[in-house]
Specification:
The chain is α/β, with parallel strands linked by helices. Helix content is 27%, strand content 17%. The protein is built from 17 helices and 22 strands. Strand 5, helix 4 and strand 6 form a beta-alpha-beta unit. Helix 4 crosses helix 16 and helix 9 packs across helix 10.
């Protein structure tokens, strides 16, 4: 019986590396890698060895016959990825499951002096860089974070009802006690130490500071909205977010955006609080959800369901909850047509469709999430308090809370260049200048999930090592020996 990869896949390709028959794709050297929602096991080629399940850092891989009801659809999802791909191909055609010849992208001199590297940020991007340095070089690493608790996006960005995804933090945490690592928490660059001081103390510095800022809405009244980053930080207990930062007194909440973060917010706000008890949710958030009045969350998308930003696994997690209804608003005939046409929109086949009366309060029988496509926000309605959101076409959705989930953006690091338009630190393959490097969202922008940071970190560490090999970065220990001569 084959194995199948399921909803919590982080796509970091740990499973690919251990598969003895190369039956998990796309692999990091294939064009689709990073562009698919997840990785997939080919059931025709899988030999049921279980190596992938043992290696998975987020507990996302199971035998097909052990899939529980919410996950049973992933047997077909894995198989469909291979529907038009050969399991075996006669010569001279290439076999899809044949390993490519090994490649060696790095050349590290045998006499490389030990490096002293600082990594700023303990989220996935920083930790993949740390793992690369400690596993493949003789470097000593100083790991720095401005917060008192390590974890970054894994600790403060993953929804509490996704405990399997949070498990990757355990993989990262084992490096915190590595003999060549020094962990310094509560240290902020620009407040406690400058970039120049870090550069002077270390051979190289890698900045993995993420994209903590939130993009704005350019509509009247947007200042009365709340950022999805605030909501996520609120239910995860982020120390920068006040316990009373999120008001749940409205029965209907509108979330502008339909990416995975928007889906997370909708799922948590409509969850039965009892199902969140015992998770990592912040106690103040659980108490607020228990006493709150939210009955409905509306996900507002500018484009149609065929272009929705959420991934298929996240939509399935939203649709398969027994206690919450999922509804598609049929205000625009293009929505139904797209669903019937197929493609990504076909994920919504079987989801209830109805024309929603936005002037009426949400139904009280059951909580629900409503997907409204082809609607852009025009203005937040209300003076001192939010009373509604006017959207394209003139419809006004009655609501007391508007959350903007229109994207993250990086913020400047004092002493480093910054591209304000892109919200990133300008770089080439992670290199800002010899000795200074970036990784993760501050490098490439806020795209890609946890696993995308693994190849991103490999590129950045590769740039650092290339600079050392080229003599552009000289380990301080070697410089000291040269001065003594």
């Amino acid at each position: 019986m084959a194995f199948a990869i399921t909803q919590t896949c982080c796509s970091d390709a740990s499973c690919v590396a251990v598969c003895p028959v190369n039956c998990i794709h796309p692999t990091p050297d294939e064009p689709d890698f990073g562009a698919t929602d997840m990785l997939y096991v080919d059931p025709r080629t899988c030999i049921d060895c279980g190596a992938c399940a043992d290696a998975c850092p987020v507990d996302a891989i199971f035998p097909v016959d052990a899939l529980t009801a919410p996950l049973k659809s992933y047997a077909d999802i894995n198989a469909r990825y291979y529907a038009d791909k050969p399991a075996e191909a006669p010569d001279p055609a290439p076999n899809f499951h044949t390993w490519a010849p090994p490649t060696f992208d790095r050349v590290i001199p045998s006499d490389l002096a030990p490096l002293d590297v600082a990594v700023v940020g303990t989220g996935p991007a920083g930790m993949y860089a740390v793992a690369d340095l400690l596993s493949h070089t003789n470097a000593t690493v100083t790991l720095i974070d401005r917060l008192p608790v390590a974890g970054g996006l894994v600790r403060y960005g993953v929804a509490p009802d996704h405990p399997s995804t949070k498990r990757i933090g355990e993989t990262f945490a084992r490096f915190h006690t590595h003999p060549r690592l020094r962990l310094k928490l509560g240290v902020e660059v620009g407040r406690d130490v400058t970039t120049d001081e870090l550069a002077d103390r270390h051979d190289a510095v890698i900045y993995a500071v993420g994209a903590a800022g939130a993009r704005d809405l350019d509509v009247p009244g947007a200042h009365r909205t709340i950022a999805a980053t605030t909501v996520v930080g609120w239910y995860n207990g982020h120390p920068d977010v006040r316990a009373d930062a999120v008001d749940l007194s409205a029965e209907r909440v509108v979330v502008v955006g339909n990416g995975n973060v928007a889906v997370d917010v909708a799922r948590v706000l409509t969850a039965d609080p009892a199902t969140l008890a015992g998770t990592s949710i912040a106690p103040h958030a659980l108490a607020a959800l228990t006493s709150g009045k939210v009955r409905e969350v509306v996900l507002l998308g500018r484009r149609g369901p065929e272009d929705a930003a959420y991934t298929a696994p996240e939509l399935l997690a939203l649709a398969q909850r027994a206690e919450v209804d999922l509804v598609v608003d049929t205000h625009d005939p293009r929505v139904t047509a797209a669903i019937e046409a197929g493609g990504k929109a076909a994920l919504l086949r079987g989801v209830r469709q109805e024309a929603v009366d936005w002037s009426a309060p949400p139904p009280h029988e059951r909580r629900r999430v409503v997907l409204r496509f082809h609607s852009a926000p025009d203005a937040v309605v209300g003076d001192d308090e939010v009373r509604g959101l006017r959207v394209s076409g003139g419809t006004e959705i009655t609501t007391g809370q508007v959350v903007r989930a229109v994207g993250y953006r990086g913020t400047p690091v004092p002493g480093l260049p910054f591209d304000d338009g892109a919200g990133t630190i300008p770089n080439t393959a992670g290199r800002v200048r010899p000795g200074t490097y970036v990784v993760g969202w501050i490098k490439r922008g806020p795209n890609g999930g946890i696993g995308a940071n693994k190849s991103c970190a490999a590129e950045t560490v590769g740039a650092l090592l290339a600079d050392v090999t080229a003599g552009l970065v000289t380990p301080k220990r070697r410089r000291r020996r040269s001065r003594r001569r």
